[in-house]
Amino acid sequence: MAPPKTAALQPLSMRLPQGDVDVIDRAARQQGCARTEFVRNAAVRAAEQVLLEASLHRMTPEGFSSFARAVAGPGKPVKQLVKVLRRKSPWE
Hey, which of 5, 15, 24, 60 has its CA 20 to 30 A from 76? Predict the structure, then answer.
């Protein structure tokens, strides 16, 4: 997730124990990005999740009825997921 090009970038400072920094650095290297980019992406994802969980979703009565029917109906297998779940585990 790239920072917006039109907005000015704002500094954000944190004090973290060395163990936390080590874990963050390992994860950032694994993702192939810098520490700042990794922390920013993780923080933005977490913030968006919090905001989504607190969001109120409104719909018409007809829309809700349609949604309720879709959720209550029988599920359909997803071919790719069935294939993955039938695979033998690497440790087996």
Answer: 60
Other C-beta atoms closer than 10 Å to the C-beta of 35 total 13
DSSP per-residue codes, 44-79: HHHHHHHHHHT------HHHHHHHHHHHHSPP---H
Could you read off the pLDDT of 7-43 as tens digits, one per residue? 789 999 999 999 999 999 999 999 999 999 999 999 9
Q: What's the burial of 27, exposed, middle or buried (CB within 10 Å: 0-12/13-18/19+)?
A: middle
Least confident of 22-26, 43-47, 75-79: 75-79
Quick check: pTM over 0.85?
no
Task: Please state the domain count of the chain.
Answer: 1
Residue 34 included in any domain: yes
Q: Which of 58, 61, 42 is nearest to 50 (CA)?
A: 42
Q: What is the pLDDT, as a whole number, of residue 56?
A: 87
21: in domain: yes
